[in-house]
Design a protein that fits this description.
Strand content: under 5%
Shape: globular
Mean pLDDT: 79
Structural class: mainly alpha
Distance between the termini: 59 Å
Low-confidence stretches: none
Number of strands: 0
Order of helices and strands: HHHH
Helix content: 25-40%
Largest sheet: none
């Protein structure tokens, strides 16, 4: 028989897509794949007036899925965690590479 303790802790359970890397990008990197074409349909349009070299991203600049790959959490981090989005598990690249990548997107 299972019984809840005196202070049960709620948590978000999902199919794995809620960990942020639902594209399987991390698994490809772990396997040592040389070239990856990542098509990432996002919910947040890219802010074409944003200058990435001047400041870190905000939730209105770039989608949180992409910025998370470089260690940037945009939006309300507390609500992200409460909703099961564990962006820290998607940090694959150094932050210093983010501005250059984002500037190429803005300039395209």
């Amino acid at each position: 028989e299972l019984r809840a303790g005196p202070d049960p802790t709620p948590f978000h359970a999902g199919d794995g897509g809620n960990n942020g890397d639902n594209a399987g990008f991390g698994a490809l990197l772990q396997r040592g794949v040389d070239k990856i074409l990542l098509v990432l349909p996002t919910m947040q349009p890219l802010n074409l007036t944003w200058v990435p070299a001047r400041r870190p991203p905000t939730e209105t600049d770039i989608d949180q899925y992409l910025s998370a790959y470089f260690g940037y959490t945009v939006g309300d981090e507390t609500s992200n965690v409460e909703n099961g989005y564990l962006w820290s598990q998607c940090h694959f690249f150094e932050k210093r590479g983010f501005a250059g990548m984002a500037e190429q997107l803005v300039d395209t």
